[in-house]
C-alpha cells in the first residue's frame, strides 16, 4: 500500500455512523428515516436496506438521515476489461453501481420534492464534482477532527462534513468535537 492509498482509501465505502455523533444530531433533528442502512447499523426504526435501494424510494418523511456509501459510481465493464479494481476484487461489474454523487443528488432532489429536511454525513471532499454540484446547495457543517467509526475502534482516514438540505438548513457551521 502506498502512502496515498492509506490516506485516501479503504477497503470499504460503507462507514457506520458513530452512535455518539448521530445522537448529537438527533437532538436537533428528530430523524424518522435512515435511507442508507443495513439492519446492524440502522439509526432509525424505518430504514432502507441495500435490497430496498433507497435511491428508488420516496423519502417523504419530515427528517431524513443519510450516511451513504462513500465510493465513486462504477460503470459496467466492457469486454476484455483490465481495470485494476476488477482484478483486485476478482470479478467485473455487470451493471451500474451507484456512488456518492447519486446519493447526494437524490438527497438534494428529495428535499426539494417533499419540502423536508435531509441530513447527510459525508467525507469533506471539497474537490469532488458531487461536492460542488450538490453539497454546496445545502448547509455545510464541517466536523472538527476525525470521526471514530466502527464503534470507536478506528479514526477515519478523511475529514467529514454534515450537509443539511431543506427547510432546516442554516448558514455554514463548524462542529466541535
From TrEMBL:
<dbReference type="InterPro" id="IPR008593">
    <property type="entry name" value="Dam_MeTrfase"/>
</dbReference>
<dbReference type="GO" id="GO:0032259">
    <property type="term" value="P:methylation"/>
</dbReference>
<dbReference type="Pfam" id="PF05869">
    <property type="entry name" value="Dam"/>
</dbReference>
<keyword id="KW-0808">Transferase</keyword>
<dbReference type="GO" id="GO:0009007">
    <property type="term" value="F:site-specific DNA-methyltransferase (adenine-specific) activity"/>
</dbReference>
<dbReference type="GO" id="GO:0003677">
    <property type="term" value="F:DNA binding"/>
</dbReference>
<protein>
    <submittedName>
        <fullName>Adenine methyltransferase</fullName>
    </submittedName>
</protein>
<keyword id="KW-0489">Methyltransferase</keyword>
<dbReference type="GO" id="GO:0009307">
    <property type="term" value="P:DNA restriction-modification system"/>
</dbReference>
